[in-house]
Amino acid sequence: MTLEEKVGQLVQYSAGQPTGPGTGRTDYDSMIRKGEVGALFNITTAREVNVYQRIAVEQSRLRIPLLFGLDVIHGFRTEFPIPLGLASSWDPQLVERAARVAAREASASGIRWTFSPVVDIARDARWGRMAEGSGEDPYLGSAMASAYVRGYQGTRLDAADSIAACPKHFVGYGAAEGGRDYNSVELSEHTLRQFYLPPFHAAVDAGAATLMGAFNSLNAVPASANPFTLRQILRTEWGFQGVVDSDWTSVAELVAHGIANDGAAAARKAFLGGVDMDMASSLYHDHLAQLVRSGEVPEARVDEAVRRVLRVKFALGLFEHPYSDEVKEAAAMLRPESLTLARTAAEQSFVLLKNSASPGGAPILPLSTETRTIALIGPLADDQNNMLGSWAARGRAEDVVTLRAALTQKLGVDGLRYAKGTEIIGGSDDQIADAVRTAEQADVVILALGEDAPAMTGEAASRAHLGLPGRQQQLLEKIVATGKPVVLLLFSGRPLTMPWAFEHVPAVVAAWFPGVQAGPALLRALFGEVNPSGKLVVSWPRAVGQEPLYYNALNTGRPAGNIDLTRPPKNGDEKFVSRYIDVPNSPQFPFGYGLSYSNYQYGQPRLSKEQLSAGALNDELCAGGRASNAAVEVSADVTNTGTRAGEETVQLYVRLQGTSVALPVRALSGFQRVTLTPGETKKVTFTVGPDAFAFWNDQNKFAVEPARVTIWVSPDSSSGSEATLQIVK
Ligand code: NOJ
């Protein structure tokens, strides 16, 4: 390969609908012919893929196939719930199956590379990209990260229906200051290693073929030119062999960051910092060969990066099968089994936040089949486009069954009254008045409110106000004032601060953005054909001022303990603690929380040992062991005391005290979904080993230390009874 041809393999352009600011290059055909391009993205059909691939394979000197990528984030044509919703299922197998469907559809269109999963830890609901990931917890996030990778890449990357995964954004992107997208990030090495890196490590261990660097600076070093994270941690410590892609123009952005004064310096710093491939900025294309010639970049380093790119292309079987079968493409989309899975995924993603009794009666949900007239009100009740979420790949609004369509089918036009009520943003008094009249004619009101998915969630969609947008709060209050029983369905890419609603509305469901099967799934949940089982993967704030808000926080030296935080402090004991004077510290709903139509009772956790040895646990840790002699078995009885069968996600939390560094008040270290029939009790057992007890300590090492350990087996991160044990030397 000539130097230019080598550099070509490290160059990537967007030749379709842009997903970032323009870069001015459009002469793809001639660049590909000259071997100046290694990968293209944002092209979505087999026909277009083949057109470009033919140029690469039949007209370029070396005939190296192009790699085609796309943001396939939660489905390709069959859109699943947004990742925040998928994670709320606490069901990695489900996520793996959804990713498999996405891979089948994407690969049928010639896309063999997805820029997914988003494995950024998200502790701040202001950050719009919380919608794209699996929430705030590293343990759950790691389980989801590997599930996505397994689903996309399948058992063999060279199977025609497998696609290469690209966990992103490495690293710390979710910790943007103030929740403002692309903003700077400061994280101590402890916090980075303990909370932000584990999902990436899990994705790498699951075999992710590529990885994407982030936009943000991390402790003043832009993540796209950070040898500590990209080379030391990723390559040396974790042994990652795959390709590191930049994010969209993040190489060029090194100039704006202030660590390069021109394009050549940006290219040099990004490349030597550990970025193999330049997405969209054109700077490797423009400068890398010259940087090699001038001796600023060793050619051996270019060779390494090129090898990594070629290895992925070989692994995908692109050299043998560069083209995509245009005839078979359509048949791969929206298959009945894919739609069934999309419905199941949506059903499992819903989190029942509140379900209180209507005055003098049973809980409002599930709705009785006797309900004669339902008023369906709200801007998201019949909005196909929004159900697709913020990254819809090739999802089409026309594929979506809305709640209105599903309810109309079930109840007939006579049983359903519909009023839009307001726009997501905007709307008029007349619309609201019409909705009130509609509500008054019905037995029950279902309100479908929330955010605009493409405009208000996802990339570049940070919000400083987290209430209902536009006039929706006004609509909500007017409808509640009718005195009709109200069920509120919240469609959003983040938790919304709406304390009034949680006080006054009897039933509230977090529906996220559920995907193509939104309507049928919601219908089944509302009428009790499925029992809601989703649990929150982010702490739900009461007020924006609480953000960043996360359950696995440190205790501080002045924890508020049992002080009543719902009123201002009355004396010094109440004042000089870590608190707000105007809002409780606690979330509206904690991480892990979610109701169902059953009730579950948790017994006291029992431990198989009262003592563990730090030495033995560390030996196991070094040997890479998980379930081991050094581990403890923790079990608890869980009983369904309700009248319906249900699935409960039983969670295990651990706290360590007396250690060299302060550790969270609770850390998730296990979870299991159990199915329980009415009255049934199951003993749920967890094997808790070195992984749960090791942490990044004051010696800058992952190790287990002597500690007092508290363990909970509980339905969420803030309740449950505890058991204790000691880790001794
Ligand atoms: C920028 C986003 O940060 C990234 O997640 C995405 O993959 C690229 N644009 C490509 O669309």
3D architecture notes:
It is a single chain. By secondary structure, the protein is of the alpha/beta class. It has three domains: 13-315, TIM Barrel (Alpha-Beta Barrel); 342-526, Glycoside hydrolase family 3 C-terminal domain (Rossmann fold, 3-Layer(aba) Sandwich); 600-728, Immunoglobulins (Immunoglobulin-like), CATH 2.60.40.10. It has 25 helices and 26 strands. The strands form seven sheets. Strands 10-15-14-13-11-12 form a six-stranded mixed β-sheet. Strand 14 (486-491), helix 21 and strand 15 (507-510) form a beta-alpha-beta unit. Helix 1 packs across helix 13 (299-315). The model has no long low-confidence stretch (mean pLDDT 97). 1-deoxynojirimycin (NOJ) is lined by residues 19-20, 71, 115, 168, 247-248, 459.
What does this entry show, briefly?
With 729 residues, the protein is of the alpha/beta class. It is built from 25 helices and 26 strands. The model has no long low-confidence stretch (mean pLDDT 97).
* Strand residue content: 15-25%
- Main beta sheet strand tally, sense and closure: 6 strands, mixed
Rg on CA atoms, Å: 26 Å
- What is the mean predicted local confidence, pLDDT? 97
CATH fold topology of the largest domain: TIM Barrel
CATH superfamily of the largest domain: Glycoside hydrolase, family 3, N-terminal domain
Bound molecules: 1-deoxynojirimycin
* CATH class bucket of the largest domain: Alpha Beta
Question: Residue ranges: pLDDT <50 for 5 or more in a row?
Answer: none
Q: Report how far apart the termini are.
A: 57 Å
Number of domains: 3
- Give me the CATH architecture of the largest domain, please: Alpha-Beta Barrel
Count of alpha and pi helical runs:
25
| Strand line-up of the largest beta sheet | 10-15-14-13-11-12
